[in-house]
């Protein structure tokens, strides 16, 4: 990916599943090695990704190098936001970027696509839950801390 080539963000299809699962596993391993525990990779498998693909809730960022980033965007999140009103927010999870493309605007493109999708769905907010070590990234991308748990 040239530094000038912006990633194309789209809803994932079934043909993306294997690459997305590898990307999420690689991202989780990198985060763990840096001291930021990530999601449980044992739960990230074809079935996990397929569930999000079938609901059109898995986004991928791609360029000439293939898929370079991904995330999920859901209409509800009973695990982390059980008391939220339905439709007040969209919920971003599992943001992952291929290490060779870190710092090239992939996270920014994914988050902007999530913001746009949330607005399109009538949601005023885009929410996520993250490890404290990742707060700086999300704040640099224009998100704000709502509460500490």
From TrEMBL:
**Gene3D superfamilies cross-referenced by the UniProt entry:** 3.40.630.30
Which InterPro entries does this UniProt record tie to the protein? Acyl_CoA_acyltransferase, Bact_Acetyltransf, GNAT_dom
Q: Is Acyltransferase one of the keywords UniProt gives this record? A: yes
> How far does the signal peptide extend, from start to end residue?
none
* Keywords associated with the record: Acyltransferase, Transferase
Q: What GO annotations for molecular function exist for this entry?
A: acyltransferase activity, transferring groups other than amino-acyl groups
- Which residue spans traverse the membrane? none
Domain named N-acetyltransferase is located at 7-149
Supply the CDD domains for this chain: NAT_SF
Recorded protein name is Acetyltransferase
- The scientific name of the source species is Pseudomonas aeruginosa
What gene name is listed for this protein? aac
């Amino acid at each position: 990916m040239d530094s000038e080539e912006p990633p194309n963000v789209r809803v994932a299809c079934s043909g993306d599943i294997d690459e997305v699962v590898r990307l999420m596993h690689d991202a989780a391993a990198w985060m763990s090695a840096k001291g930021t525990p990530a999601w449980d990779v044992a739960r990230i498998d074809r079935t996990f990704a397929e569930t999000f693909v079938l609901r059109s809730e898995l986004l991928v960022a791609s360029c000439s190098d293939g898929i370079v980033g991904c995330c999920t965007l859901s209409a509800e999140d009973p695990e982390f936001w059980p008391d939220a009103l339905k439709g007040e927010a969209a919920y971003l999870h599992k943001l992952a970027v291929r290490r060779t493309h870190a710092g090239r605007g992939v996270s920014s493109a994914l988050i902007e696509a999530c913001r746009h999708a949330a607005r399109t769905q009538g949601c005023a907010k885009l929410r996520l839950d993250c490890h404290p070590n990742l707060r700086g990234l999300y704040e640099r991308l224009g998100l704000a801390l709502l509460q500490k748990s």
